[in-house]
UniProtKB/TrEMBL annotation:
<feature type="modified residue" description="4-aspartylphosphate">
    <location>
        <position position="67"/>
    </location>
</feature>
<dbReference type="InterPro" id="IPR036641">
    <property type="entry name" value="HPT_dom_sf"/>
</dbReference>
<dbReference type="InterPro" id="IPR011006">
    <property type="entry name" value="CheY-like_superfamily"/>
</dbReference>
<feature type="domain" description="Response regulatory">
    <location>
        <begin position="18"/>
        <end position="133"/>
    </location>
</feature>
<keyword id="KW-0597">Phosphoprotein</keyword>
<dbReference type="GO" id="GO:0005524">
    <property type="term" value="F:ATP binding"/>
</dbReference>
<protein>
    <recommendedName>
        <fullName>Response regulatory domain-containing protein</fullName>
    </recommendedName>
</protein>
<dbReference type="Pfam" id="PF00072">
    <property type="entry name" value="Response_reg"/>
</dbReference>
<dbReference type="GO" id="GO:0000160">
    <property type="term" value="P:phosphorelay signal transduction system"/>
</dbReference>
<dbReference type="InterPro" id="IPR001789">
    <property type="entry name" value="Sig_transdc_resp-reg_receiver"/>
</dbReference>
<dbReference type="GO" id="GO:0005886">
    <property type="term" value="C:plasma membrane"/>
</dbReference>
């Protein structure tokens, strides 16, 4: 077992592909492929956990999208083998038809980094890709397919980044910004509830969920460290309150800017 761990990383090819999709449903495979091609994301597709393990022995990836409900070898067992046997630390994002709250604990326990639910939403998928894949991928896609239109500068949200991932799709930009406003309001309410109830475990989970929300609007540099601290560090309650205060302030400014953007977009 130890020898396998030591040798695998040397055997894997140096030239990595962006993404490995592990999904047994042909319709979902085609839908994912459509989105990947739109954003010039290189990818491989396999239909079960055994195929995924064999692929990962030979090829390096930047991200793994892993369906939990796979035949024969499910996503949990596959993720655990990727972490414990292959010793690969590539981010793994779970895909599930269940409610997130029903599976999140087991996903994290078996080594996955995030999860999202079916049916597949382009908005949510792009949020995941933008969080776990290098930003250069989206910049490259945008430069090949359009000249990015400049928007007024804002202090909190990076709308140039939004323009890059939208590739000129105005409807997509508007829907994503509307969704951001709704989601950030929901997140802020949950943060407040967690503090009132002193529910630290739920607070950490909300912080984890917020990563995708802020990444899609180019806010990684402003809030990433604070969310990571809440999620991963052993902070006392006063320290948690202070971090939440900063996050709330920045998110409210971002929400105001997003609403201003929507008003100007018409």
């Amino acid at each position: 077992m130890i020898c396998e761990k030591e040798n695998l990383k040397n055997d894997v090819q140096n030239n990595s592909i962006d993404l490995l999709l592990v999904e047994d449903n042909p319709i979902n495979q085609k839908l994912f492929a459509y989105y990947f091609k739109e954003y010039l994301v290189s990818y491989d597709v396999v239909s079960d956990g055994f195929e995924a393990i064999e692929k990962l022995r030979k090829q390096k990836y930047k991200l793994i999208l892993l369906d939990i409900e796979l035949p024969i070898k499910d996503g949990y067992n596959t993720a655990q083998e990727i972490r414990e046997v292959l010793n690969i630390d590539t981010p793994i994002v779970a895909i599930t038809s269940h409610e997130i709250d029903e599976v999140k604990d087991q996903c994290f326990e078996t080594g996955m980094d995030a999860c999202f639910s079916k049916p597949i939403s382009k908005l949510e998928l792009v949020a995941v890709l933008s969080q776990f894949l290098p930003q250069e991928i989206f910049t490259q896609a945008a430069s090949k397919q359009q000249k990015i239109n400049k928007v007024p500068e804002y202090r909190t949200i990076d709308f140039d980044y939004l323009k890059q991932i939208s590739m000129g799709d105005k409807v997509f930009e508007k829907r994503l910004t509307e969704q951001f406003c709704e989601k950030i309001s929901e997140n802020l309410n949950k943060l407040d509830e967690c503090l009132v109830n002193e529910n630290v475990a739920e607070l950490k989970f909300v912080a984890h969920q917020m990563h995708s929300t802020i990444f899609i609007m180019g806010m990684r540099s402003k809030l990433g460290a604070h969310l990571d601290a809440i999620e991963r560090k052993a902070l006392n309650f006063e320290q948690l309150k202070a971090r939440v205060g900063i996050i709330s302030l920045v998110c409210k400014r971002a929400r105001d800017e997003a609403r201003e953007f929507l008003a100007s977009a018409g």
